[in-house]
Write a structure and sequence with these properties.
Length: 218
């Protein structure tokens, strides 16, 4: 943390810039925060904060449900609303992660379900692999259907923070995700939304169920 005196910290789902060295004051602010990142200059911190401007990080389940219902009621041709999720369980001995997505799309004035599930197998497969695969597969499915816009909901912060560039993609798994997602985004309009998990949001619960099924089938 040496040399970093400017911090973008998301507290109570409101990202702001805080100034100070990495000491007790800043550390206390990061505890319980949704996410944070340190910078050596205010200019860099402001640039990072701007990357978060367009993200939907509504955290009240009732409001998320309401927003999704409104989007569903006003769904346009070529548009899809889809929730994605990953699944992993320790202690099973499985080297795999499950993935699943569930949503609805409109094409030719008809609304249809969009859903799928599966698993990622391989040494070191974890929850993040399922989360990434679910998001990429959901967007690819929308492209294959000839749709033009995706409202993508996920309950894993890192996906949207990697995609917007707030988090640096240092590991291969995140680098690969960003590369693949950017390629998909060149073919279709994608809007990321964060969804609180396990809070009774129907689409999210269905995606979670499908991801768990994918893991169980591995």
């Amino acid at each position: 943390m040496a040399g970093k005196n400017f911090w973008v910290i998301c507290i109570d789902y409101q990202p702001k810039i805080y100034e100070g060295a990495w000491g007790k004051n800043i550390q206390d602010k990061t505890k319980g925060s949704q996410f944070y990142r340190g910078f050596t200059s205010r200019t860099d911190a402001e640039a990072a904060l701007n990357k978060l401007r367009d993200l939907d990080i509504e955290h009240v389940p009732a409001k998320v449900r309401q927003n999704v219902e409104e989007k569903e009621n006003n769904l346009q041709n070529g548009q899809v609303i889809v929730f994605t999720d990953g699944s992993f369980k320790n202690g099973t001995g499985k080297q795999a992660a499950g993935w699943g997505y569930y949503g609805k799309y409109k094409k030719n004035d008809e609304i249809n379900p969009l859903e799928a599930h599966g698993n990622v197998k391989g040494k070191g497969a974890k929850q993040v692999n399922g989360e990434i695969t679910a998001a990429l597969n959901a967007v690819q499915a929308a492209i294959d259907l000839g749709l033009q816009k995706v409202d993508l909901y996920c309950d894993f912060w890192n996906l949207m923070l990697w995609d917007c560039g707030f988090y640096e993609s240092k590991k291969e798994v995140s680098k690969d995700f960003v590369k693949q997602m950017k390629d998909l985004e060149s073919q279709i309009e994608v809007h990321f939304h964060w969804s609180p998990g396990h809070t009774g949001i129907p689409y999210n619960e269905k995606a979670d169920e499908l991801a768990k099924r994918g893991f169980d089938e591995a």
